[in-house]
Design brief:
This protein has 224 residues and is mainly alpha-helical. It has two domains: 66 residues, Arc Repressor Mutant, subunit A (Orthogonal Bundle); 139 residues, GntR ligand-binding domain-like (Four Helix Bundle (Hemerythrin (Met), subunit A)), CATH 1.20.120.530. The protein is built from ten helices and two strands, in the order H-H-H-E-E-H-H-H-H-H-H-H. It has a two-stranded antiparallel sheet.
């Protein structure tokens, strides 16, 4: 059992991380209603940090708060993906292209290393390590991009897509991502802006390129 926490700030983050993990692990499924009393009791904390964490999760699109009624875990709908992919692809491309001069050989070596660690983790079916390295790989782009507004938009979208439970494991999709990561780093190294923009916007975050994988992984279907 998680021990009581006295710092309101740390308590808020603890609740936030706890709820994210519950969603990531499939304990809290899309469409389910949160039992706020049970959560407060389990974590041994007041309603204030719980409320604050719920507000943050709602802002990031994970759940919906119905005043004086209930809190429901959101589903990812078919219509959400084109917007999410287009937004993050456009912003990530802009961040990288505007900061190419910041990328040192050490940064490139780090990116290649993270991508290789992802490959090894996938081969060993270690998705915890894969996900960790995946975040670390993409975090370099926001860190070097140094644009707080873009980071505030990109981060919750990444969390929304990557922390949301997938119904099916599509190995080919993960393998493609690793290949694309290598192409992205190669393009940064070459300072080839046209190639970089194409790979990020049309392939890595291209909705047309990824839609059949999205349907399989998330089980989303278009409502005709």
């Amino acid at each position: 059992m998680i021990q009581p926490i006295h710092s309101e700030g740390s308590a808020r983050e603890k609740v936030y991380e706890y709820l994210l993990k519950q969603m990531r692990d499939g304990v809290l499924l899309p469409g389910s209603t949160l039992n706020l009393k049970d959560i407060s009791k389990k974590l041994a904390m007041s309603n204030t940090p719980l409320r604050d964490s719920l507000i943050k999760l709602e802002a990031e699109g994970f759940l919906t708060i119905y005043p004086r009624s209930k809190v429901v875990i959101n589903s990812l709908e078919y219509e959400d993906f084109p917007f999410l992919y287009s937004t993050i692809g456009t912003l990530e491309a802009l961040l990288i292209m505007s900061s190419l001069h910041f990328y040192t050989p050490e940064h490139l070596e780090y990116l290649y290393l993270k991508n290789e660690e992802m490959r090894n983790a996938l081969n060993e079916d270690d998705m915890v390590t894969y996900d960790k390295c995946h975040y670390e790989f993409h975090d370099v782009f926001t860190e070097l991009g140094k644009n707080v507004f873009a980071e505030r938009i990109i981060t919750p979208i990444k969390n929304r897509l990557w922390d949301f439970p997938r119904k099916n494991f599509i190995r080919e999709w993960y393998q493609n991502a690793i290949k694309e990561h290598g192409q992205i780093v190669d393009s940064i190294k070459e300072k080839n802006i046209a190639k970089l923009e194409y790979i990020i916007k049309q392939i890595h975050w291209g909705i047309d390129y990824n839609l059949h994988y999205i349907k399989k992984a998330y089980g989303v279907l278009k409502n005709d």
